[in-house]
Specification:
Length: about 260
């Protein structure tokens, strides 16, 4: 019965993988026809990222639960194809927030699993308390979130992208434009004119924040996702039977 259930889950995973891969290829063909080579590269990158579960399984001898594997495929597709190519980041206001929250949750699961696996294997002389296992999971998730933001900043600065998604805000507090070191508080900013060297004037309905608000928001929701999972992980170690559903997100070492 258990083998039959596992086989059914595996079949479902393969079906989802094939469908998503097919959609990416269709998208890539469309981008080739349009001559948008940047998006073609994004499609190729997505196809490569889809191989991560297989690499982890074969090379590292780590078994990914069906639920985690499906979420990984959907996360990659949602971020690269829907988010970047189909502009879901622009169409749906909270798309980026949802993905960063999910990233915090998933990276917390992976970080938790790494330590829990080492903690339970006899070949390693480790016996960390539930608190420290959960703390590591939280820190691991936040580290991945920070590296993600480093990547977005680097792409924006050196390749001229807008991964950080600039925001229009209407209030700023700054000592830079104040008098005698006092803070200047500008509220209800209606219009800002931006002058370029080519005498081009751009008028925006507020103050343009260059990535800071987006970066801090992303790190904050990553924090929430990481905190939720690391907290659940703590109680899981204390009572594995009571929180058995969390095993849906825990990678495990293969028996052979």
């Amino acid at each position: 019965m258990k083998k039959k259930k596992e086989k059914k889950k595996r079949t479902f995973n393969i079906t989802v993988y094939i469908i998503l891969r097919f959609l990416v290829i269709i998208c890539m063909v469309g981008q080739v026809i349009r001559g948008n080579w940047h998006n073609v590269f994004m499609c190729i990158l997505t196809l490569l990222l889809f191989t991560i579960p297989t690499i982890v399984d074969k090379a590292l001898k780590i078994k990914l639960p069906s639920t985690l594997e499906i979420i990984t495929y959907l996360f990659i597709f949602a971020a690269e194809i829907l988010g970047e190519i189909q502009n879901f980041y622009g169409i749906f206001h909270h798309w980026d927030t949802i993905l960063h929250t999910l990233n915090g949750f998933l990276m917390g699961a992976i970080g938790f699993s790494l330590v829990d696996i080492l903690n339970r294997r006899k070949v390693f002389d480790m016996n960390l308390s539930p608190f420290f296992v959960s703390l590591f999971a939280f820190c691991f998730s936040m580290m991945i979130g920070i590296l993600w933001e480093f990547g977005e900043f680097s792409l924006d600065k050196y390749l001229g992208k807008d991964c950080q998604k600039d925001k229009i805000i209407h209030t700023i507090v700054s000592a830079k434009i104040g008098n005698n070191g006092e803070k200047a508080v500008l509220k209800e900013i209606k219009k800002v004119k931006i002058y370029s060297d080519s005498n081009q004037v751009t008028i925006i309905d507020g103050y343009l924040d260059i990535g800071l608000v987006d970066t801090m928001k992303d790190l904050f929701v990553n924090f929430i996702g990481a905190l939720i999972f690391s907290s659940l992980g703590y109680f899981y170690i204390k009572n594995r039977e009571g929180y058995k559903f969390l095993e849906l997100f825990f990678p495990k070492l293969k028996d052979n």
